[in-house]
Amino acid sequence: MQKLLPHHQHQRVLHFLTKKHIFIAIYLLLLLALLHLQFHQQKKSINSPHQVVRSVPKEEDDNTNTRRGAQCDYSNGRWIRSKAEPIYNGTSCGTIKKGQNCMANGRPDTGYLHWRWRPAACELHEFNPSLFLSLLENKHLAFIGDSLARNQVESLMCLVSTVSSPVLVYRDGDENKFRRWSFPSHNASVSVFWSPLLIKHLEKEPSLGKNHNKLYMDSVDERWASELDQMDIVVFSAGHWFLLPAIYHDAGGEVLGCHYCPEFNHTEIGFFDIYRKTLRTVLNEVRIRQERTITRRRRSDKLVVLTTFSPAHFEGEWNNAGACSKLEPFREGEKKMGYMDMEMRRIGVEELKDAAEKKKRKMGENGSVKYEALEVSDLAWMRPDGHPGAYMNPFPYAQGFKERMPNDCVHWCLPGPIDTWNEILLDMIKRWKSD
Ligand SMILES: *[C@@H]1O[C@H](CO)[C@@H](O)[C@H](O)[C@H]1NC(C)=O
Ligand SMILES: *[C@@H]1O[C@H](CO)[C@@H](O)[C@H](O)[C@H]1NC(C)=O
Ligand SMILES: *[C@@H]1O[C@H](CO)[C@@H](O)[C@H](O)[C@H]1NC(C)=O
Ligand SMILES: *[C@@H]1O[C@H](CO)[C@@H](O)[C@H](O)[C@H]1NC(C)=O
């Protein structure tokens, strides 16, 4: 169970929860929690759940990694310098959220654009937009989750739009929380669904003083689940919202416990187990609904991906100048990932593995749902230089240096390291299609 922060600290933090800064404040909570955890749990030893690496020959042909069963451990590798320019930039792509358009916001250094991830035991190819579109022909790829799901889908749209212009066919919710694009040339669709906790929930429930999210542990969020039938590839990406104050309910509405709720008489149960239960509920529900559709309509297979936890890199307070101002990746072994980041990653990987085994027991080898973990935690951890930092706002230093300045050390500049997530995703889709 997590130790708590002093109440006044949370209140001070929550005070900053203006609409504009809501995500940043969340990550301040994260940072405080992280520091606290590191302090209190230094002695715990963590088992890294790396999969067995199977060597794949290094060759440039398109069959690399596509052999049936051949799988690469992408989380094991290093960032190497690269002279190549990103295939898109802040002016060539119109799908970048302002706060992540670092080039347009005047970030002066460009070194962070010139690194490639090299897995230890296999090849990761540069993103090939034409190949991606051909793999997505007559298919629908949906991203479901929080602002990092959005960050990843926007990276993907920028990468793909270098060869084909997407048509925005649907948009809903403030800040474009629900969107769907179509690539008419390939009858391919990409969409994003806002669902930061994945299960049924109420954000900042007014009856709870607006500080607490209300989670229903046994039900999925129907905003995306009701459309599962129409999705061929589903990418879940959530995690940071589980750190926020919350009240947890079971199917009967009974309170199971809470996270950070001293003003209510509920038991503090932290968020690690809740995150785990959430993934279990979500992944089970996907399988159960797929079983139903198979008997009904003989739908084709589904690929279900979980993007693992993406660590933040705050150093000090989020609104201090230079809260994440590194210009280069960490060197190998320079800094160890924090306890909380490692736990969140571990839970994600374990639940995906568990879902895959459960599926095998229930559906046998009949296909239908394939589960894959997109293990980005380690490679993301090594990129403290890839965040917008102060360049979440246009030209933050135009009026001179300021002590106090909001920093985004959570999301990723576009272009930037998150483009790599999509290179790995492309590889996964390629392997899935050749299964
Ligand atoms: C951005 O990309 C466009 C189109 O490829 C190119 O013309 C432009 O020079 C690029 N700008 C920068 C700053 O790299
Ligand atoms: C177009 O793609 C959708 C999935 O997004 C699929 O259901 C539909 O059958 C496709 N249309 C054609 C003509 O293949
Ligand atoms: C809180 O819950 C405990 C156990 O259910 C109960 O004994 C206690 O009276 C409650 N306190 C308040 C202030 O409701
Ligand atoms: C797999 O499909 C075959 C043929 O349709 C069926 O007989 C078998 O029961 C299925 N296996 C499972 C575990 O559902």
Automatic annotation (TrEMBL):
Query: What sections of the protein cross the membrane?
Result: 21-39
As one GO molecular function, the record gives:
xylan O-acetyltransferase activity
Q: Which residues form the Trichome birefringence-like C-terminal domain?
A: 125-428
Can you quote a single GO CC term?
A: Golgi membrane
Q: Which UniProt keywords apply?
A: Golgi apparatus, Membrane, Signal-anchor, Transmembrane, Transmembrane helix
In its UniProt entry, what is this protein called? Trichome birefringence-like N-terminal domain-containing protein
* The family this protein is said to belong to: Belongs to the PC-esterase family. TBL subfamily.
